[in-house]
Amino acid sequence: MDKCDPLHSAILIHSSCRGDGAGLPEWVEEMSVIPFISAEKIAGLSTATFSSLKTTSIAALATTQAAVLHADQINALTSTALQYMAMTQIQSISSTAMSGLLAAQIQAFTDTQIGELAATQVSALTGDEIGALSTTELQNLSTTQANALTADQIGSLSTAVINNLTTTQVAALAATQVQGLTTTQLNALSNDHLGALNVTKLATGQAAGLSTTVIGDLTTAQVAALAATQVAALTASQIEQLTTAELQNLSTTQVNAITMSQIGTLSTTVLNNLTTTQVAALTTTQVQGLYWSQLNALSLTNLDALDVTRLLPVQVLGLNTTTIMNLTEAQVGALSAAEISVLTVAGVNSLTTTEIAALTTTQAGGFTSVQIAGMTTTNFSALSSTSGIPGLSTSAIPGLTTDQINSLTTTQGNAFLETQISAMSIDVASALAALIQ
Fold this sequence. Notes:
Blueprint: E1 12-13, H1 15-18, E2 26-27, H2 39-44, H3 47-51, H4 55-59, H5 63-66, H6 71-75, H7 79-83, H8 87-92, H9 95-99, H10 103-108, H11 111-115, H12 119-122, H13 127-131, H14 135-139, H15 143-147, H16 151-156, H17 159-164, H18 167-171, H19 175-178, H20 183-187, H21 191-196, H22 204-209, H23 212-217, H24 220-225, H25 228-233, H26 236-240, H27 244-248, H28 252-256, H29 260-263, H30 268-273, H31 276-280, H32 284-287, H33 292-295, H34 300-305, H35 313-317, H36 321-326, H37 329-334, H38 337-341, H39 345-350, H40 353-357, H41 361-364, H42 369-374, H43 377-380, H44 388-391, H45 402-406, H46 410-413, H47 418-422, H48 426-436
Antiparallel strand pairs: 1-2
């Protein structure tokens, strides 16, 4: 074949055919020749040769030719040459080549070219390449393009790049993408971006890693959207950052997700910011996680809402007289014999006569001899003749005093059982005999 034939070898034209006398082969300057070059030969061109192509020749590349270009060839092009590439050419560049482009080449693409990248190309970009995008290019990425970013890509982005996304793009992030965000990235989100984030897509570990500042910046709607597993992953310090409105907006499912260890470290302020409905819905495990200091600091309304049947006897033991006095009649009536047995003498005497009178036989059976010995005559005389007095255990009877017996009515005196009388001291038995004769 004649060396001056336009299709000679790799379609190189010798200077002797052009009359320039340089003696060095170079690409033809006519773009009409380019489409006739095989893709294989295009792919085999050195970077020096490829970079010598004129912009018109670059623009003439067929999509099949653009598809075989490798990163080194594209990296050798000037920014002007890159910008001559048509949309179809840009979209034909392979993912492998795309991932090998220099940041400078990414920056050389026009906003329009970046906006036309295929999803597969976007997902091939490295963190440095994405970081090279201008704010405009980044914000102009379509939802399809933005959703093509992998979790690894998301996790490699700088906080500045993340905050350059639009709130619409942040809101549209898929669960896998959100879960690709690092703790550093999440805690560096601007308030607007944080507000746009779908927190339901956070992994439990991510929720636990949110700073107290970020937790405090969550919207009421975001807090309400947290899954039970996410709530369970929060620390007490994080829960402390929730506003009263956010706390009170928590669903029963969310409240019930708070663990025993979490609830035991909550401040009394947080506990009293819960609604009575939320307090009433606390599980047995949660109630049993409350400490004396928390129980004794409950507001009157929240104390009234507490299901005392879920308390452990040791918790009842720590209730102060004010708390015991503030228990409702229903709550006192719900105390078990085991819970009554651990009340201090002062606690027993903090019960009203109405509450004492309403005690069941089982509850009265919880009184110890120490409690009976310290019970005021006013409270003792309030024991019912049908349940309170006959319910006293024989082990509690030795605590009776003659003053207590003398405070009873004849009907109450006649309510003592023979087994109880047998357990009385001589003085108390004599006082009882005098009462009922």
